[in-house]
From TrEMBL:
It comes from Ferranicluibacter rubi. Keywords: Glycosyltransferase, Metal-binding, Transferase. The keyword Glycosyltransferase applies. It comes from the Bacteria. One of its GO terms (molecular function) is metal ion binding. This is Glycosyltransferase family 8 protein. Signal peptide: none annotated. Pfam families: Glyco_transf_8 (PF01501).
Amino acid sequence: MLACCIDRDYAELAAVMLRSAHLNGNIPDVEFCVLGDGLRPSDKEKIQRSVGRPVTFIDIDDEMLGRIKNLRTTSGWSRATYARLLLPDQMGAAYPRIVYLDADTLILGDISYLFTLPLGDHLVAGVAARGSTSPAELNMALGRSDDAFYFNAGVLVIDATKWRSEKASETCFALLHSRQFPFLDQDVLNLLASGRALQLGWQWNAQMADDYTDAVVVHFTHAKPNSLECRHPQQGAYLAVRATTAWADAPLRTKRQRQWKRYRHSIRKRWLAVLRRLSPRRAMP
Ligand SMILES: [Mn+2]
């Protein structure tokens, strides 16, 4: 099972990511699943038409929503980010392993290894985070030693059987409600899997690489590849796959659209804060 979690805003990215996995991933028998937050039938139809193989859609229902709706969001991270924590429970026992991919990744080559690599006693496998925050800083925020393995949560191989048996989602949500984490659920996943996360090579989740020649999975961690602002060296590879999807003729997004999105998010947040003040009991998670 290959899964991603998105809201409407990420429909295009998910369609292109899944299309690239279909075309390049060498995983003909793997089921594709989209856990969707508020996707419309037209979004699903468009994604389905783009990918080239059947896609299973699961709607985030009220019960799932109840578990994630009071958690902190940012303009860059919607509540759909938390939905990945629900995946193992949602899929059930028929799925011993889940390969989770962020919608803002692109599959350039054979990823069958992710579906077969031995996890042993590890709960997850992932790739070290690379970005403007150093691993030492990331770890310090979690009270861990500087050199602990801190993974980026955009590409995860999850032992879903183990996850379910230890009720790991509950642990994550309890942590998320206990205090603020700078990197939200990514921090919490790293805490949960401390000492039992298997480190994969950078090519399985290439972030801010100097050279993408050997990358198998590219991760657009900053400007998204469907935006005019994007200067990522692999944007061309994204656009080439996009040209074979239902988004082929869609205009690229402008900076103004992103600013508008940020503005909408801050208004919504302020409004929710007002509502919470009016009815404090409802604000309790
Ligand atoms: Mn991402």
